[in-house]
Amino acid sequence: MELIGQGEVFHIHTFRCRHAGEEKDEEYIKKAIDLGASAIAFTDHAPFPGDVFRNRMLMAELHEYVKTLNTLKKKFRTMIKVWVGLEIEYIPSFEHMENGINYYKQLKSMEGLDFLMLGQHMYEIEAGVYSFSLDKGTVKKMEPSGLGKAIIAGIATGYFDVVAHPDRCFRRRKVWDEELADISKAIIEQAIKYDVILEQNENSKKNKHHYWKEFWELAETVSDMSDNKSLRIIRGLDAHNTGEISMLTPKYSLEDTEEFNEWLKQYEKEEEQDREFVARLNSVEDGYDGFNAAVLTYVKKNRNRFDRVYNYMKKNPQALSSDIVEFISNQDDFYDDAVYPKK
């Protein structure tokens, strides 16, 4: 059994799920940096079309979630790796929707989304009927098997890279027995077969019957006996506020580190220059949309180009569009983007 993701902060929720703290996404990242983490993985609860389930973000918030985290990924790229993920149940009906859409494939192909994590909090009995609609007695009896089968089927789809808290599907049972052992063995073997990571959830340890040491002891045994691959596991925080990010040993303070302060100054400087550059471009006396687009296309390739054009326009505030185009066309790298090389 192989433990991966050490030094990372994994399984983070945000205010969008409606049962987490109100902290901004950036505060989680800063806390992770403060703790010395090498990476942070956001895995907020994914919405479903029609917003048919509670305690998760709305469909209308999905693109904003991905866009915001990717902006922060870029902002903090020199300090920490930011992974953008979603925690979601496997519900077969959403794999074969009436309009022909496979919602899981749609999510997998979404730009800016890094991975999906299977978090099976409920299961589908039949189309539109879910386990939370069952009476308490039936749920207690059927839930381990129902959730277990859903996890096993979900792993086989290839949509998911990680399974969150697999042992939590036994939360309504008080005693470990042969049935739970058989379900666990099937989940573990499926994870090994499809090379899917199982999450050992730290939050589960705080709640009675959510974490089962017997599951993880069996996982080690099954992994050791496997002829093919070793089971990979990751420890996840399942954090719903910044106060729950507390597993790592602090290496330095975010506010005090000279490295961070220098990086922040540089970021703020570039951000200010970007705004000034656009303002100068828009104020060119004979400027036009095509000119603006061409200049921006050239400078966005790398910061050195930006700096050269920015400094030229700053020193020559009265420059016309033809002057700026001539300056750019005389640069050594002007033809680097051409379909045919300069002769």
Task: Give a structural overview.
It is a single chain. With 343 residues, the protein is an alpha/beta fold. It has 2 domains: 2-244, TIM Barrel; 258-337, no CATH class. Helices cover 41% and strands 13% of the residues. The protein contains 10 helices and 10 strands. The strands form 2 sheets. Strands 1-10-9-8-5-4-3-2 form an 8-stranded parallel β-sheet. A two-stranded antiparallel sheet has the order 6-7. β2 (8-12), α1 (25-34) and β3 (39-45) form a beta-alpha-beta unit. The longest helix has 25 residues, at 258-282. It is elongated and about 80 Å long. Residues 248-256 and 338-343 have low confidence and may be disordered.
In short:
The chain has 343 residues and is of the alpha/beta class. It has ten helices and ten strands. The protein folds into two domains: 2-244, Metal-dependent hydrolases (TIM Barrel, Alpha-Beta Barrel), CATH 3.20.20.140; 258-337, no CATH class.
Count of individual domains: 2
In N-to-C order, the SSE pattern is EEHEHEHEEEHEHEHEHHHH
Cross-sheet strand order for the largest sheet: 1-10-9-8-5-4-3-2
Query: What is the first-to-last residue Cα distance?
Result: 58 Å
According to DSSP, the number of beta strands is 10
